[in-house]
Design goal:
This protein is mainly beta and about 140 residues long. The protein is about 15% helix and about 50% strand. The protein has helices at about 5-15, 20-25; strands spanning about 35, 40-45, 50-60, 65-70, 75-80, 85, 90-100, 105-120, 125-135. The strands form two sheets. A five-stranded mixed sheet has the order 2-9-8-4-6, with no helix packed on it. A four-stranded antiparallel sheet has the order 1-3-7-5, with no helix packed on it. A hairpin with a 5-residue loop joins β8 and β9.
Length: about 140
């Protein structure tokens, strides 16, 4: 029994450091779908009733044409986004205007972007942008 344990340990280590071909055959990591200049904006202190504008700039790094289908955020945020196809390497801008009129407290707001392009599994491709503000009443 005592000689069995070292043999078992040897087999375990051999399997851990076995063939390198599995690592070499794995596909290269796909480039990011979209590269953002920034996905988060800090607005700092915002007075109730004040409006703030911000831009989220991006580059299509997917290697394929992409198209934004839906951009969704809370009612306090008005959004403009590029319509139509964005070719590989092209840049785009999502513009957002935050209206603090109806807010009662500081918050982080999420903006969701849904693309016409799907993932390899056929699911919608979704990304998030955010901004944060500290409300001054």
């Amino acid at each position: 029994m005592k000689s069995f344990i070292p043999l078992l340990a040897l087999l375990f280590f051999a399997s851990c450091f076995g063939s390198k071909s599995a690592v070499q055959e794995s596909p290269a990591a796909a480039p990011p779908f979209v590269t953002w200049d920034s996905q988060m904006h800090e607005l700092g202190t915002v007075k109730k009733g004040e409006k703030r504008e911000m831009q989220y700039e991006f580059t299509n790094t997917s290697g394929e044409n992409i198209q934004i289908d839906i951009v969704d955020a809370c009612e306090c945020t008005t959004i403009e986004f590029p319509r139509g196809v964005i070719a590989p390497g092209e840049k785009g801008v999502i513009q957002a205007v935050f209206d603090s009129s109806e807010k009662e407290e500081s918050e982080t707001i999420t903006i969701r972007i849904i693309y016409t392009n799907t993932t390899a599994d056929g699911f919608p491709r979704i990304e998030k942008l955010e901004y944060h503000f500290d409300l001054e009443v």
